[in-house]
Amino acid sequence: MKKDSVFIYSDELLTYRFSKHHPFNQHRLVLTLDLLKNINAISLEDIVVPRIATEEELRLNHQQSYIEAVKLASVGQLSSSQAENYGIGTEDTPIFPGMHEASSRLVGGTLTAVDQVMQGKALHALHLGGGLHHGFCGKASGFCIYNDSAVAIKYLREKYNARVMYVDTDAHHGDGVQASFYDDDDVCTLSLHETGRYLFPGTGNVNEWGQDRGYGYSFNIPLDAFTEDDSFLNAYSTAVTEIAEYFKPDILLTQNGADAHYYDPLTHLSTTMRTYQEIPKLAHKIAHQYCGGKWIAVGGGGYDIWRVVPRAWSFIWLEMTEQTKMSGPLPKEWIDSWQEKAPVPLIKNWEDPADMYEPIPRRLDIEEKNEQTLERALYFVRQQQKQLKGKN
User: Fold this and answer.
1) pTM of the predicted structure, to 2 decimals
2) How many independent structural domains does the chain possess?
3) Which of 279, 56, 260 is nearest to 174 (CA)?
4) Beta-carbon contacts of residue 212 (< 8 Å; ≥ 6 apart)
5) Where would I find the Histone deacetylase domain in this sequence (predicted)?
């Protein structure tokens, strides 16, 4: 019997670990799953174990020479000069034992999600271990070795001939995914992120439209630093709605980085948990409106793994499974279980405190700038829609 939703997970996903103090920490997967178990929102029957991607599948998006370099690095046989050429062995993306297998499993998890949905075993699939959107065809970048979303989209194109809409709400620009499909008119990428003026990777300008036959299928909305919920959600809901109507995808793939939150230590946006409640609601609606419900969601950034990520990512699963909206206190058992291990006081409610931060002095200026950016980002779509209406 087809399930509404499946949750892709195994403890082996935790082997993707650069070092004890590296900000990318997959322990957030454990915290999220434990929170869902504590509220009885997930069962063993919902969980599907990820497979490991084959080298042939990795080659859908990655050069063989790069894969070979990662394999050598995994067993300590890659020189530092060779590693530098491939973006590994850096402060952001250091080498760790077994990195090829660990990275291949993250990709395999997203491919598992694809097959579950496209083979009719589930309507929706959530793989929080994925979302490594900075990886390039021949180079690692920004904590990302292999780019699971890019491999999955090429797999969707090649195996299922699906038109894919990719929506990325990570605070960092989804540069690796955009680059892989910049000249492809069967893949539409949309990234909402903090402006690259002060944040890695520095790309994702509003005028990055795509090239050749892919022109008009890449969209970017770089938001000003300190953007809050209302402005973020206005840009998100307007862009996703209008671009989905323009592109009419067969399947929706969303990348759900949770680092646009005020508490995130690596970014400068000021959203709250309200944004993370709303993001999956619209994705769910769009999936049913255009894709027959087919929706794959992956994780991504999120570096306050104690106060932010478990709540934010739980909302995706709760939306997928249409469970009761959560509000009020988090389970006492979950708080008690993790507080001693956490370096910060845990938030005890699903919502953030009303006084979490001081009022933003430039709020109106930020909102106006973001509105102008949104208008520019959607200019191409709106011109196309006007032309269609004129013909009708």
Assistant:
1) 0.97
2) 1
3) 260
4) 183
5) 22-317
